[in-house]
Design goal:
By secondary structure, the protein is of the alpha/beta class. Helix content is 33%, strand content 35%. The chain contains eleven helices and 13 strands. β10 and β11 form a beta hairpin. This is Ger(X)C family spore germination protein. Keywords: Germination, Lipoprotein, Membrane, Palmitate, Signal. It comes from Clostridium malenominatum.
């Protein structure tokens, strides 16, 4: 951790020198500036179209003794940019932008719409548009001020949490400002962000926030998010289990790869989702040796394939009949083949289309150890 802070200090010094040289100003010491690290977006009030934002920001403060502390300061304003001046009057250091790592939206803000925030971040020259984004329950200030054991700030922990989420539940890693901005504008794409909460276990991911354009319209729990990610992405990783009639389990680490075929017949569409799942068996308490018996291997692969297909079909049925949203970005595939900007409502089309799921399971290896 100490080496990381030294490296961060070197980078900050280089940035300072470059920036102030261009501005023709005297180079400042690091003790004279506040570095924004985690930024939250809350609604203080909304009456009709009149909105007042409350935006807390966690800053890194560098002491003359070499220690790094953090401070969370709120700013209020009817426009996001106004909150910057409101915060500056409450902090005795110059705010130095460009090293932001996390942008956190409260569910209230996410449901109200984040287009103006995304546009402001993406178009600003002094904001890090590769910072990560998440949605949280309740107020973001509670998240930013949460004391995470072993970390200088909760923002550091959340950044690592989201970066490494791609190793579970088949999540992707496209939660950066640039990804969110492009997805919200592209036909057939859908913004999905991790949803975090403070629980008795601390700050944890509890699901996925689903957007239509720039507004959050749905929260999926982790089990639903897992199946959605499995059906909609590629090169995601996660854990899959298969139980027999005696509730004995086989557990496996999995990586998915998706290919989609689309067929249009008149005004009707048919989608065929082909999933290739590569498994590493890590736990086996069933009374069958999977690797030394060809028959057992075939039985295991068939049962696992069918289980994934059934879970996928169940999710698709709920997606079409309850959510009525294209959560699998099938519209992106169809528009690429049959033409974009035709005015098609892909949520409606996908909700009324035939969607088939075919799963092919490959067992490549097993973990060491004899279970």
């Amino acid at each position: 951790m100490e080496r990381m802070y030294k490296f961060l200090g070197v980078i900050i010094i280089i940035v300072f020198l470059s920036y102030y040289a261009r501005q023709g100003e005297e180079v400042r010491y690091s003790e004279e500036v506040a570095i924004p690290f985690g930024i939250g977006y809350d609604l203080k009030s909304k009456v009709g179209d009149e909105v007042v934002y409350s935006i807390p920001i966690t800053y890194y403060i560098f002491g003359s003794d070499g220690r790094t502390n953090n401070l969370t300061v709120e700013g209020e304003g009817s426009f996001v940019i106004e909150t910057r001046s409101d915060r500056q009057r409450k902090i005795n250091k110059k705010i130095f932008n460009g090293l932001e790592r996390m942008f956190i939206f409260s569910e209230e803000v996410a449901k109200d719409g984040i287009a103006n925030i995304i546009d402001g971040l993406f178009n600003s020259h002094d904001i890090n548009d590769h910072a990560l984004m998440v949605v949280c329950k309740d107020k973001t200030k509670h998240i930013l001020e949460y004391e995470q054991q072993g970390y200088n700030s909760s923002t550091e922990f959340i950044e690592g949490l989201i970066k490494n989420l791609r190793f579970s539940y088949f999540f992707s890693d496209d939660f950066k400002v640039t990804n969110v901005s492009s997805k919200s504008l592209a036909e057939g794409r859908r913004v999905m962000l991790p949803y975090i909460e403070i629980t008795h276990e601390g700050i944890v991911v509890t699901g996925a926030a689903i957007f239509t354009k720039d507004r959050m319209v749905l929260k999926l729990n982790l089990n639903e998010a897992k199946i959605m990610n499995l059906l909609s992405g590629s090169k995601g990783t996660g854990e899959l289990t298969l139980a027999d009639d005696t509730y004995k389990f086989v557990g496996a680490s999995a990586e998915n790869k998706r290919k989609v075929k689309v067929i249009k017949e008149g005004d009707r569409y048919k989608f065929i989702i082909n999933l290739n799942i590569d498994l590493e068996v890590t736990y086996n308490e069933q009374d069958m040796d999977i690797f030394e018996n060809t028959k057992n291997l075939r039985i295991f692969k068939d049962r696992m394939s069918r289980q994934i297909e059934e879970q996928g079909e169940e999710f698709i049925h709920k997606m079409q009949s309850v959510y009525k949203l294209d959560l699998l970005e099938l519209g992106r595939v169809a528009s690429a083949k049959y033409g974009r900007r035709t005015g098609v409502d892909w949520d409606e089309v996908v909700s009324n289309s035939q969607i088939d799921v075919n799963v092919n399971v490959k067992v490549s290896r097993q973990g060491k150890g004899n279970y």
